[in-house]
Structures are given as C-alpha cells and as structure tokens.
Amino acid sequence: MSSLTAVYPGTFDPITNGHVDIIGRARRHFPHVVVALSQNPSKAPLFSKEERLAMAKEAVSGLPGVEVDAFEGLLVDYLARRGAAVLVKGLRAIGDFDYELQMAQMNHRMSGVETFFMVANPLYSFLSSSIVKEVARFGRDVEGLVPPEVARRLKERFRAE
Fold first, then answer.
1. What are residue 22's DSSP bridge partners?
2. What was the pLDDT predicted at 3?
3. Which of 6, 14, 25, 47 is the most buried (most CB within 10 A)?
4. How far apart are CA 34 and CA 55, in angstroms?
5. How do residues 115-133 score in pLDDT, each as one tens digit?
6. How far apart are CA 9 and CA 63, in angstroms?
C-alpha cells in the first residue's frame, strides 16, 4: 500500500447512506479506500463486529477500489500496518470539525499522517448512526437513510426486543 491508499475509519454502527456517500466521493480522489471499522472499548455497539463488517461490505460492494476491514488499537498504528498515510473524515457540522481537528493534529503529531476532510452532502448532513438507531428503535422507517440491508437488519434487531 502507499499514500494513495486512504483509510476511512469509524464504528459504523450501522453504516449509513452518509458514510457510503463519503466513501464513494473519497474513491474519486484515491485509487484505494479502506473502510476501517474500529473497536472502541468505550462504546457498546448495537451490532457485533461481524455484523458491522457484513453490512459495510454489502453497502460498498458496487464501489471498485474499496475494501472493508476492522482494527483494534490506535488508528495511526493501523495505518502504519497498512502502509497508508491519509485518513478520510466526513464533517457534518462545526462540532464534528472541533473534534476531528484535534484528532487530525494528534494523529499527525504521532505519525505524520494527513487527514483529508470531506464536507457531508447536504442530503445527509443531519444523519448519524445514533439517530438512525433511535428512529428504528421506535419502529419508524429508515429507508433512504441507510442501505437496504442495514434497514432490514435494524428492523429485525428491534423486532426482537
């Protein structure tokens, strides 16, 4: 891998159409994009790592040059193992920028990695995995917010509760 490989990290619990939009747009700038699912010990995801990997793989299956992987530990260590020097981060609002700027500066300080910020498509700027889960939890339709496979899995998960 090289600096032409970009890594788009996240919990993706679940992956949304906003994520897929960023991935597709990033792919226009980088020949290889790795969607890297993080294992954040401070979060209790709704879906297992295996379920999140399956949903992400399904969501990006039509995008050439996109790979889905998972990692644990520090993101900069994962990038070093992959030989990547670019991170992709989506920004929805000023709050995202405040947090992501600090992370970008720390990642750069630790490893020299560059962060490629992409502004969210206005169609998805309100969208987050947390909002999608909340809407689905109360039985409302999430069509158009997430890929069809994700909508199906959300419906199944909350029907079981």
1. none
2. 56
3. 14
4. 15
5. 999 999 999 999 999 999 9
6. 17
| Domain 5-159 listed as CATH 3.40.640.10 | no
From residue 139, give the alpha-carbon distance in Å to each of 86, 102, 152: 39, 37, 12
Sign of CA dihedral 157, 159, 160, 161: positive
CA distances from 14 to 47, 76, 113 (A): 7, 23, 26
Tokens of 40: 């954040």
Active site residues: 19, 43, 92, 129
On the CB side of 132, how many CA atoms lie within 13 Å of its CA? 29
* Spatial separation of the C-alpha atoms in residues 34 and 102, rounded to whole Å: 22
How far is residue 18's CA from residue 23's CA, in Å, rounded to a whole number? Answer: 9
CA distances from 96 to 19, 101, 103, 119, 133 (A): 14, 8, 11, 10, 19
In tens, the pLDDT along 68-88 reads 999 999 999 999 999 998 999
Q: Break the chain into its structural domains and give their ranges.
A: 5-159
